[in-house]
Amino acid sequence: MKIDTHQHFWRYQPDEFPWISESMSVLRRDRLPHDSQSVTEACGVNAVVAVQARGSLKETDFLLRLAAHEPRILGVVGWVDLASDKLSEQLEKWAGASALRGFRHILQDEPDIAALIESPAFNRGVSLLQKRQLVYDVLVFGHQLPDAGDFCRRHAAHWLVLDHVGKPTVRDWGRSAQVGEEWSACIREIASMPHVMCKLSGLVTEADWQNSPGLKPADERTIHSCFDLALDAFGPERLMFGSDWPVCELAVDYSSVHSIAQTWATARLSESEQYAFWAGNAIRCYGLYAPMSEPVI
Question: Which domains does the chain have, with CATH numbers?
Answer without folding.
Answer: 3-286 (3.20.20.140)
